[in-house]
Design a protein that fits this description.
By secondary structure, the chain is α+β, with helices and mostly antiparallel strands. Helices cover 41% and strands 19% of the residues.
Length: 193
Amino acid sequence: MADEITVQVSWRTVVTLENGQAYYFPQKFTRFMRDKYAIPAVYRWRVLRVQNGEPKEPIYIGESDDLIRRMQRVLTPSKSNKKGNTNRRLHDLLAKYIADGRIIVVDIADVTPFEMNGIRFGKDTLSDRFKRRALENILLVIAQKAEAQWNLLNVLYDPVEVATHKISKLMKKHPDIVRAAIGNYLKSTDADA
């Protein structure tokens, strides 16, 4: 049995000035923010609890090679309503919370360095896209497990559902090609049996 790996993370709220107050969505960025947070990061948008004792905080966990650029894309997303436009979906979702009088902050994950199979993970490895995405997914799983504390705003995709959707779109455009591909697949599975 392999040694247990414990991932320790603390979340640090993005501030507008050194020793300043927290950044609140949708404020404009300060020069300090642009200088300090143009870094690779695993981050979360967090909708603060209301005073009446709301049990869960809505959060969205993501990753970026440049946190300020990523935040800007959420602040000013493309006008496109293209399916899968996370920036637009997140902007619209956060705007609804703002309209309800909620306060939204951005936190950065400070992960205590750890190793998995001899591979180091930590703050100093976030420029590596694969390590950054791995940490994002680990933190998503941790947040999902703590569902009593968080309301996870990330969209979860079912690979079968995504494939089914793609096939149905393809079927509308090219039914003959899809039928032929399905027929070839069925023939190959019959030959294997």
